[in-house]
């Protein structure tokens, strides 16, 4: 019996403590941490020719003008479908999500997939968002006179563009868009001006593009010009009218001295007068234009915005930017007024997270406003 008890004690003791097992687990954890740390420290090295997918990720505190302080995570990756073609820029995708103290949570997936042969590209954006937002109205005039209200806004958004090269620089594209937006807990329903609280809309379109950029996410040189026409037929959504939407963009990039890039962006979005509020243009939305404005502070059918940005490398992977510009939203060309143009300018820092892909931290100023923007890739 004593031998049996002694054997049991030895067995239980061995189960409770195995120095070699603990040491092995610590080694595995240390190896994982070193790999992760190395992906951050050396993440800017191009490894797309040796790996199927070159990915890095980060989890950190975050801040948005609308959502406040929170916790966020993001992963971005570069890859090549044809590793033998060194002249073709790599494909990319990123996924990011966050939760904030103001009840905001959301996830975004976006990317650009370059197919073999470098003749076509698929660009895509998928978003899900739940936001508790301030609200002033759905037209510029209403936004300037109404006191601040509030609502909860939920959105599912899908945008995709398939582009085919006609020549080395000219492309023709097909567009598909789907958007569902709904609001609840609306403090003042009159701010919707008689429109519904939710809409489901599906659009299809075509585009013509001229593109000589060397890299989509961080161009150093080249020109990008696009004209896109999208139609939202009445029978493909919950709006009782057919909607027409036109997008025009002109971007130009040029190096002036070593480490510098001057970037110019002219943006126009024009919609017919029957467009529902969920598709109307919002100053400050999208984190690319009119940075620093509260998204939705000014809203209307159409938008024109322009910006000039200087991007300067400081040291190795660290850089900075400064920009100035302006923009406005308006109901129609007949009612466009230069006095409604809002100023925009700001400063930012850049850190090369992946090869030629920056994390950007911008602080933008505007008319009686200002705010931070955190994002992957350049603004335009």
UniProtKB/TrEMBL annotation:
Q: Name one GO cellular component term.
A: outer membrane
Localization: Membrane
Q: Carries keyword Protein transport?
A: no
The family database entries (Pfam families) matched by this protein are listed as: Omp85
Record carries keyword Signal:
yes
User: Which superkingdom?
Assistant: Bacteria
Q: Which organism is it from?
A: Phocaeicola dorei
Give the Bacterial surface antigen (D15) domain ranges: 113-376
> What's in the keyword line of the UniProt record?
Membrane, Signal
> This protein is called what?
Bacterial surface antigen (D15) domain-containing protein
* Signal peptide coordinates: 1-23
